[in-house]
Amino acid sequence: MSVESALQALRFEPQFMRNVARWAHVPARAARFAPFPPSLDRRLVEALAARGVRQLYTHQADAVAAGLAGENVAVVTPAASGKTLCYNLPVLHRLLADDAGRALYLYPTKALAQDQLAGLRSLIDLLDPVRSDDFSRPSRPRATKIATTNTGLTCATYDGDTPSAQRGKVRDAARIVLSNPDMLHAGILPQHPRWAAFFANLSAVVIDEMHVYRGVFGSHVANVLRRLRRICRFYGSDPRFYLASATIANPQELAERLVEAPVTVIGPERDGAAQAAKEILFYNPPLLDPSLGIRRSASLEAADLAAHFVRHDVQAIIFGRVRLTTELILTYLRQTLEMNQAPNSGNIQHPTSDIQHSVRGYRSGYLPAERRAIEAGLRDGAVRAVVATSALELGIDIGQMGAALLAGYPGTIASARQQMGRAGRRDETSAALFIATAEPLDQYLIAHPDYLLGRTPEHARLNPDNAVILGGHLACAAAELPFEAGEPFDGSNRPSAGDVTAGLLADLVEAGQLYRAGDRFFWAGQGAPAPTISLRSGSADRVVIQAPDAAGKPQVLGEIERTAAPLFVYEGAIYLHEGTSYLVERLDWEAGAASVRPVEADFYTRPMMGEGVEVLAVRETTDENEHSSFIIQKSSFLRSWGDLRVVRKVTGYRIVRRGSNELLGFGQIDLPEHAFETEGCWVELSEGLIEQLKAAGLWLSAPNDYGPNWPKQRDAARARDGYRCQGCGAAELGDRQHDVHHRIPLRAFVADPARRGGRPAERAWEAANVLENLVTLCSACHHQAEASVRIRSGLGGLAALLVGVAPIFLMCDPGDLGMVVEPQAPASGRPTITIFEQTPGGVGYAEQLYRSLPQVLAAALDLVAGCPCQHGCPSCVGPVLEHDNMLDAKALARAILERITPGVALPTAATVL
Asked: Minimal CA–CA distance to 73: which of 94, 50, 49, 97?
């Protein structure tokens, strides 16, 4: 059987086809070739000819020619287009021309470096191999093997898995070192005297999977590359950079921001690689409750559909977003295959005893030997299905999959295309299925599949000048080489850059991390600072998590950023680590340590948090009433971006039963208020727009007071409830009285004559203040209740929509963004939505959101208009909770969007995968 037969069976399944939002056929495409550049070393041409390659794809020829001309080059083409050859050929050409030349290859993961090493060696082996020196351990036969040829070309990996005893040989003998940014940051640059010969002769640096270097990680890596170039200047070298990336909207900007030098981009329009036919299905799991927008689990649907392909003898890869998802899908898939074996069906059979071996999982946390065995099983066909995280998204050789299934949107269009591209690397037809979850992003993409099929709108952003990130790397740079006063650190030659560097160096001196002697700055600490700085964190300030060992002695379980500690390791929290539940017994905020112990718990905890924002500086603002692209709007809004101060306080937590999500209780938290400075984008609704909404009956002002009987009713409610919070049970303490909350807000009675029993609107308080509508709550629970009302309002629903769809344009995770909704902002008095970056200092998302806001608004309007729910659901403005019929939050959010959204064209499938 084949992919075609599996797809044909699905076409004739009515229940399946009812949930297919789009079935796209991508036709096969013939290859476009170009001759080898005439200046390319003939030994390389002959080696490729021996492999059967007698000409290059057009984009390969362009990239090699630019590399041979001494340019920095970035190749931005789809998966399986042969990008590796685009940098291997110019690099090997350089090393063949210079017997002392060295090259550094950087990959985002160790596994990818190991995989690419094999391909590089196979090409070098064609250049007349004469001997092989194997320095590796038996369990890692490929890790540090250095193959030497008559040409003198040698290569090896240098990463955390390289045995200590072999690192010196790699350092001294390998002319091409394959590593990763983390090792370069913490293990190579701080030890640069040992690498002196390598850096003195470094002529080429390869940066593969460039698109992953964005946000906090990309901002760190850009600074690591600054340090690398500084070390190279010290030793007298000036390497060229060769970058490879999946398709993004701003490859030139990203490449030049990373290497801070001009870069020639070879884009997807020059892609000459052959492409087999592919069927791409967009599948939306069936609705279980249409009014609430509840759908069947994407994980269950993925397992069922994967089982269908396996039964048709189609090798399949299933991608899950996170580790837990992959383990759940793996369990469901094995169970489905065991239950659905039908002896008379004619399908390929997999006996139960073989399912464990033929259906595997793959994620971080598996031992290297186990991952290598799974990869080999995929290549030789013994493994028929693998459930993986993004660990298999990047070009590791796993053979030719027949089908790729995405259980949910992986977070970026680039990642989605990479995952879809894991199927169909031969001439046969392949299948890719995008299976949507109920998340807003997934539902938007199901309704607008051209975002995945057409030209990407994603901009990869980074900010290497983020003060927190830059300060850490200045300390690292000073520890590597004393920093000269006035010495530039970046390659921009901007006067302001020198001012920023000088200011941060002075701050580091004041903090005692550096000391100044004359015009030079020296590291003042013990040991190199680099190992204390994580490339995936915006702050070096951490909280250590400790758990007792068998003898009762505390052992480090992990660590977490201090800014995130109040959200995850507050006292009473359930902290999850590798599937085990730990109870947080104590959080020592001053010492930066959390003490936990393992427990058996059928519940988890979620913090309750209040946030506020203060505008520190406005970088740019636009009045959409005056903007030419909005002239059709009679009333609109103000959009701005700039610097913010975010104040956050965690006030309590909820205890929730696993599985059912039943609320079991509340707890209180006593932690200091936390503030940080970042960047944000905010929208202020105009007075004219509010008047329009009021005239349409869609906007209700908050009442000025609760009526003359409020003090009496408030005291009566407190007495009835025994002066205890009805949320968490806390009693009133001292002079601080609990709050009294309206279950149904007063404004709902103002809006609805039926609720106020025929009373005039100005006497709505009489109906609202009855005891049955009042409940006593402590400040923490009251804050949570009020937050729920705001989120269920049209303004909060609009904010949820914007945060839900913005990542499509920002190439970020929704968790990278926070939001604050203010019915009356202190500065302007206007209704304001602020979306801010969770990373202190920001990494560029706020500015990109400001510039992309017209498209984000259009996407939000399309999402809310097309959602089948009645009043709101998790797929659009958020769930409508119990007792919430005061206003239709969905209708209000839609009404606002209809009045402020310009006519923005959505992407089309003019450009396909």
From this structure: 94
In tens, the pLDDT along 426-464 reads: 678 999 999 999 888 899 999 999 988 987 778 899 999
pLDDT per residue over 30-45, tens digit each? 999 999 999 999 999 9
Q: Are 838 and 537 in contact (CB under 8 A)?
A: no
Cβ pair 225, 259 in contact under 8 A: yes
Q: Tell me, what DSSP letter sits at residue 731?
A: B
Tell me the three state secondary structure of residue 297: coil
Write out pLDDT tens, residues 751-763: 667 777 778 877 8
The answer to whether 490 and 223 have CB atoms below 8 angstroms apart is no
SS (H, E, C) 541-579: CEEEEEEECCCCCEEEEEEEECCCHHHHCCCCCEEEECC
pLDDT at 706: 80
String of DSSP letters for 691-723: HHHHHTT---PPPS---TTHHHHHHHHHHHTTT
Task: Note the helical H segments in 236-297.
Answer: 251-259
Amino acid, single-letter form, for residue 56: L
Token output for 646: 């975010």
What is the token pair recorded at 451?
Answer: 């975002």
Q: Give 628's pLDDT tier (boundaries 50, 70, 90).
A: very low
CA dihedral over 856, 857, 862, 865, signed as positive or negative:
positive
- The string of pLDDT tens digits covering residues 680-699 is 999 999 888 888 877 776 66
With the CA atoms of 202, 105, 255 and 260 taken in that order, what torsion angle do they form, in degrees rounded to the nearest 10? Answer: -30
For the CA atoms of 356, 360, 362, 365, what is the dihedral angle to 10 degrees? 0
Query: Which of residues 136 and 277 earns the better pLDDT score?
Result: 277
pTM of the complete model: 0.79
| Distance set, CA 611 to CA 235, 279, 614, 784, 834 (Å) | 49, 46, 10, 11, 11
199-235 per-position pLDDT tens digit = 999 999 999 999 999 999 999 999 999 999 999 999 9
Alpha-carbon distance values, 527 to 112, 199, 465, 543, 893 (Å): 30, 22, 25, 20, 55
Better-predicted residue by pLDDT, 625 or 464: 464
* Cβ burial, residue 493 (10 Å; 0-12/13-18/19+): exposed
**Average pLDDT, integer, range 524-553:** 85
For the beta carbon of residue 872, count every other beta carbon within 10 angstroms. Answer: 28
**β strands within 212-345, DSSP E:** 240-245, 264-266, 278-283, 287-289, 294-295, 316-320
Nearest to 392 by CA among 315, 320, 298: 320
At residue 74's C-alpha, the angle toward residues 69 and 78, to 5°, is 130
Q: What is the mean predicted confidence (pLDDT) over 87-112?
A: 95
Looking at residue 187, the DSSP 8-state letter turns out to be I
DSSP string, 391-432: GGTSS-----BSEEEEES--SSHHHHHHHHTTB--SSS-EEE
